[in-house]
Amino acid sequence: MAKRLQAQRLDGIDYSPRVEFVQLAGEEADVVNLGQGFPDFSPPEFAVEAFQHAVSGDFMLNQYTKAFGYPPLTKILASFFGKLLGQEIDPLKNVLVTVGAHGALFTAFQALVDEGDEVIIIEPFFDCYEPMTLMAGGRPVFVSLKPSPTQKGEPDSSSNWQLDPTELASKFTSRTKAFILNTPNNPLGKVFSKEELELVASLCQQHDVVCISDEVYQWMVFDGFQHISIASLPGMWERTLTIGSAGKTFSVTGWKVGWVLGPDSLMKHLRTVHQNSIYHCATQGQAAVAQSFEREQLHFGRPSSYFVQLPQYIQRCRDHMIQSLQSMGFRPVTPQGSYFLITDISDFKNKMPDLPGAADEPYDRRFVKWMIKNKGLVAIPMSIFFSLPHQKFFDHYIRFCFVKDESTLRAMDQKLQKWKAELTP
After folding, report:
1. Is the Cβ–Cβ distance between 425 and 334 less than 8 Å?
2. Nearest to 294, CA basis, from 276, 310, 306
3. Peptide bond preceding 187: is omega within 30 degrees of 0, i.e. cis?
4. Average pLDDT for 177-205
5. Parallel, antiparallel, or unpaired for β 331-334 and 340-344?
6. Given this model, what pLDDT does residue 425 score?
7. Which burial class, exposed, middle or buried, applies to 114 when counting CB atoms under 10 A from its CB (0-12, 13-18, 19+)?
8. What are phi and psi of 345, to 5 degrees?
C-alpha cells in the first residue's frame, strides 16, 4: 500500500531489545535461560488444584463473567489488600482485574496520560514504561538511582543505589502527570525504604501528581527488608494506582491475571479503557486466583503461607547464584527483592574490550550475545533498562533471573565451571 500503515504513536517503539535477546537465546542449543523472569519450578499445589477445579468444575466458568473482574476475585482482593493498605476497598469501584500486570500498566497509561503530559520514570526501569508513555502521547522524564561507592572488596547491595532528593524534586513541573514507582525494582532488586517513599509521596502531593505503583514483586523480599505500599502512606490512597500480578504472586506467569487497586476517581477512567479494549479477562484463571487468595488469607503470616515459603526458597536461589557468579569473577549486586540480580562485568570489559558488534552498541549487549553463543548462558543487558543518554554509563552490568529450579542452577554451575577451567592456565 502507498499509504502509511502504522499509527504515529508506534514510531520509535517497534524494537524491543528484551525480545531480541529472548529470541536469540531460543536460536541456540543447550543454553541455560537466566534471562527471562519466570520460575521454572511448579506452582504451589493448591494453585494448580484451584485451576484444575475451575476448568473441570462449574461449567459456567467457561463463559463471560463481570467485565471488571470475577466477583469472588474482586471481593477477596478488596478484603486482602484492604487490610494491608488500611482502606475500606469497594470490590466494584476500587478493583479492576486485567490481563496481567502488563495489561494493568497499559490501561493506566492510556486512561491517564495525555498528549504532552510528563511522566517521571526511575532508572533503571522495567522496559515497558517508556514505550507505554510514548504510545499514550506523554513525555518520559528520567531520574536515576545511582550506586554509592563501596570499599574495595566489599559486596555491593541494591540498597546502596539511591535517588538524589534534589535531582528528584527538580524533575517535577507543572506538566508532570504521573510518577512511576516500581518496588521491589526490576531489574535492580531494590526495595524502597519508608523514608524514600515518603519523599516521593510528598512530591506527588505537592505537585498534584498521580503515582502508578508497580508492586508485582511485593512478596519477594529478603534479608529482613520490608515491602511498603506507597498507597498506605497518609494522603496517597487518593492519588495512587497499586498494580499486582497473580503470575508473580503464585508463580503462574502464564495465567496472565493482574489487577489494579485505587480510588474510584482514578479507577473509573481505567474502566473506560478496559471496557473499550479487552473488555473481559479469562474467567477460569480469575476463579483459580480467587481460590488461591482465599487459601492464603487463612494462612497469612504463618509458616504454612506461600507468601512466607516462596521468599525463603528464592532467597536460597539468590544466594546460590551470587556465590556461583562470584567464583567466576563477576561482582553481583545483592538484591533485597524481586526475581533478579545485576552483576558488574567491568573486569570482563577490561580483559575483553573488543567483542564483536557494532561500534556504537553498548558493551553489555555485545557481552551477552557472546556469552549466549559461546558459554550457553542467557542474561539480559542492563543498558536496556536505562534511557538512551544514560545507557553508556551502565553498560558494565548485566541482569540474571535467579528464581529457578535447583536443576537449572546446577546446569548454570556446570557451565560456569567449564568457563573457569578454560581460563585456567
Report:
1. no
2. 306
3. yes
4. 98
5. antiparallel
6. 62
7. exposed
8. -115, 25
Question: In sequence order, what are the residues at sequence separation of 6 or more whose Cβ sits closer than 8 angstroms to the Cβ of residue 232?
Answer: 84, 85, 86
| Backbone phi, psi, residue 117, to 5° | -65, 140
Q: What is the pTM of this model?
A: 0.95
Q: Which residues is 157 bridged to in the sheet?
A: 334
CA 51 vs CA 17, 66, 190: distances in Å: 33, 19, 32
The per-residue pLDDT for range 326-357, each reduced to its tens digit, is 999 999 999 999 999 999 999 999 998 889 98
pLDDT given for residue 26 in this prediction: 74
Residue for grid cell 491475571: 257
Cell 551502565 belongs to residue: 394
Tell whether omega for the bond before 184 is within 30 degrees of 0, i.e. cis: yes
Instruction: Give me the residue label for grid cell 506452582.
Output: 43
pLDDT level of residue 15 (50, 70, 90 thresholds): confident
What three-state secondary structure class fits 60? helix
User: What is the residue whose three cell numbers read 541482569?
Assistant: 399
pLDDT of residue 79 exceeding 80, the answer is: yes
> Which cell numbers in the block locate residue 336?
533485597
| pLDDT, position 5 | 84
- Shortest CA distance to 213 belongs to which of 222, 166, 225, 196? 196
Tell me the three-class secondary structure of 78-112, residue by residue.
HHHHHHHHCCCCCCCCCEEEECHHHHHHHHHHHHH
34 contacts 377 by C-beta, under 8 angstroms: yes
Cβ neighbours for 63, distance < 8 A, ≥ 6 positions apart: 283
**Per residue in 25-43, pLDDT tens?**
777 778 999 998 999 999 9
d(CA 96, CA 111): 13
